# Entry
Amino acid sequence: MNVAAVNETEAVEFQSYDAENYRVLLNGLKQLRPIRVYGALRLPPGVKGRLPLVIIGVGSQGLASGREDLYGSALTVAGIAVFVVDSFGSRGFSETVSNQAQLSFPAQTADVLFALEHMARDARIDPAHIGFLGFSRAGQIAVFINDERLQRAVLGDGTCYAAFAAMYSGCNPQWRNPQPTRKPLLIYLGGDDTLAPPHKCQSYAQRLTQAGGNVRTIVLPGARHSFDSLQPATRHDNVLVLAGCEFRVEDDGVIVEDKSGLRSDGDWASFLKAAEAACGSRGATTGHGPHPRDVAVKAVVAFFREAFGV
# Structure
């Protein structure tokens, strides 16, 4: 792991599972292959007592985006510990922009949930004040795991995230019948994002709120996807875009694309290939600008401080 990208600190390992679909997460993990996942834990200096923690999930650019250090530094200054989960490096690659089939969303979802379970047992961490911050594909996970049945199925009763922040999530897939937790969810979106058009998350936020969720959306005018990345806004012709798809997750964990009827009954790579053929495209602009890279940092830190009461 490139620990320099997250200002180094302490390496932490935990056990997760490689899941090909959400159905296996809901129905038990006995048939899944375990995997050791690692990350970097960063503690705020000079703070005593059990600490609040934000677990960070990487987006498709991986640690090269610089986002983990950007937000991690600000969070630790605010007295909040940070644990960056390197789902990619743990499996032998550094990014998924070139090939989203390398790691399924369900597998990264498992990483995020088992990171919570592991860190909740750390004597330095306050288990009641652990939040999750995700970028891009991990932002999708931040929205998706704000669900009672998923957290309960994987972790059982008593272990749950206290807050969720999703940066430029696609909100795709969405739960067909959402059962959101009552914990706060912040969804921060780019107004000119073609990879993750803001209207999908805005409409889903309304559905989550109607179902009892606690959701707030912020749309940054003129911002593209990955507006806080080190890389300036650039057109990438080979980026997979599934914004034209309408993915819904049924109560049993099966993903259905509503326009084509495509179902996630096989492996993740086959499902992605079929989804691209049915409703996908290639090419999008991602990167920072016209706003400063840190445009959202203050709001995200304030969100977690309010959620944790610090």
Remarks:
- The two ends are 30 Å apart (CA to CA).
- The longest helix spans residues 105-120.
- The chain is about 30% helix and 25% strand.
